[in-house]
Design goal:
Blueprint lengths: L6 E4 L2 E4 L9 E2 L1 H5 L7 H14 L3 H4 L3 H12 L1 H28 L5 H10 L3 H13 L3 E11 L4 E11 L2 E9 L15 H9 L3 E5 L4 E4 L11 E7 L4 E5 L5 H23 L11 H7 L1
Parallel strand pairs: 6-9
Antiparallel strand pairs: 1-2, 2-3, 4-5, 4-7, 5-6, 7-8, 9-10
Helix pairs in contact: 2-4, 5-6, 8-9
Length: about 290
C-alpha cells in the first residue's frame, strides 16, 4: 500500500508518529497483527523445490557440487523473491485504487498514470476488474488512505478506503490476490478482520501531518449504525468483497489487544539488551582448582 507520511520503519516494526516533526510512538496495525507467528516453512520448501526443478541449469550442474550449491542457494530464496514481487504488485494495485477514489473526491490524482504503470507490468486486468466492481457496487468514496490513531491501546494505521455502498458506510481494505487453479481469486485470510476492527476502533483521524492535527474518528460504531467492515480481494479475473461478521468482531478485537501486549513486552525485552551472561565458577571452587 502507499506509504503513509507518518509511518516509519524501525527495529520494532513499522511505527507511527503524531506529526512529521515527531518521532514514532506506536506500532502500526499490521505490525501488531504480525506478532502472531505464521508457519510458512512448508510453503517456503515447496517454492524452493519448484524453483530448483524448473531451473534449466540443473542438468548441467549435475556432478558439480559447487554449481549445485549455487543453484540450491538461488532456489532457497524463491519464497522471498515471490513475496517481494507480490508486495510490489500489491502496491501498484493499491495505488490505482487510491487514485480512482481520490479522483472521484476531487483531490489531486492521476488514475491514468497509475493504470499505465500497471500496463508496464502486464497487470491492467487488475484495474479492469476493479473498475467493474466499483461501478457494479456503486462505490461512493468518503475518504482514501485514512491515517487513524488509538491512544487507549496504543496503535495507528492507514485504512485504504471509507466509502458509502448501498446506503451504508463501509471501511474497506483491498487485498491483491492471485488466481487459483479454479480461475477464482484466492481467499482473504481471516486475520484481515483484526485489521478492519482495529481501524474501526480508532479514536482519531489525521487532518494535517505537518502540524500534527487530528480530529475524533467518527466511525467507531459507539453510537448509531456500525459501519460495514469489508475486505476486497482484487484479482485479474474477479473482485470478491467479503464482510467481517459482526458476531466475531469482539473476539478478533480481543485477539488484536493481546497481540499489542505481545509487541510491547517484546520491545521491552529487546531494549534490555542481552538476557544472559556468562557465569564463572564460585571463588572457592576456583581456588581449589588452582
Amino acid at each position: 500500500m502507499t506509504d503513509p507520511r507518518l509511518a516509519h520503519a524501525t527495529e520494532f516494526g513499522r511505527m507511527y508518529s503524531r506529526s512529521l516533526s515527531q518521532p514514532p510512538e506506536v506500532p502500526s496495525i499490521t505490525t501488531v497483527i504480525a506478532q502472531e507467528a505464521q508457519d510458512m516453512t512448508g510453503w517456503s520448501g515447496h517454492m524452493a523445490a519448484t524453483e530448483l526443478i524448473r531451473d534449466t541449469r540443473l542438468s548441467g550442474a549435475l556432478g558439480s557440487p559447487g554449481e549445485l550449491r549455487s543453484l540450491a542457494r538461488h532456489a532457497a530464496a524463491a519464497a522471498e523473491r515471490f513475496r517481494d514481487a507480490a508486495a510490489a504488485r500489491g502496491d501498484r494495485v493499491h495505488h490505482y485504487a487510491e487514485q480512482v477514489a481520490r479522483s472521484v473526491l476531487g483531490h489531486s490524482a492521476d488514475p491514468d498514470a497509475a493504470r499505465a504503470v500497471l500496463a508496464q507490468h502486464g497487470e491492467t486486468r487488475f484495474a479492469d476488474r476493479f473498475d467493474q466492481w466499483w461501478q457494479l457496487y456503486g462505490v461512493k468514496p468518503i475518504a482514501a488512505e485514512v491515517t487513524v490513531w488509538n491512544h487507549t491501546v496504543g496503535y495507528a494505521g492507514t485504512l485504504d478506503l471509507v466509502a458509502e455502498i448501498g446506503g451504508r458506510t463501509c471501511i474497506l481494505d483491498f487485498k491483491t490476490k492471485g488466481v487459483g487453479r479454479d480461475g477464482r481469486a484466492k481467499p482473504v485470510r481471516d486475520s484481515v478482520v483484526m485489521q478492519l476492527v482495529a481501524g474501526m476502533r480508532a479514536e482519531e483521524v489525521l487532518v494535517d501531518p505537518v502540524s500534527g492535527t487530528w480530529e475524533p474518528w467518527p466511525y467507531r460504531g459507539d453510537s448509531g449504525e456500525m459501519p460495514l467492515l469489508l475486505a476486497v480481494a482484487v484479482s485479474e479475473t474477479e473482485v470478491v468483497p467479503v464482510q467481517a461478521q459482526a458476531a466475531g468482531l469482539r473476539a478478533h478485537w480481543r485477539k488484536f489487544w493481546a497481540l499489542r501486549q505481545v509487541w510491547e513486552h517484546s520491545r521491552e525485552v529487546t531494549e534490555q539488551g542481552h538476557a544472559l551472561r556468562t557465569l564463572g565458577p564460585p571463588p572457592a571452587a576456583a581456588a581449589e582448582v588452582a
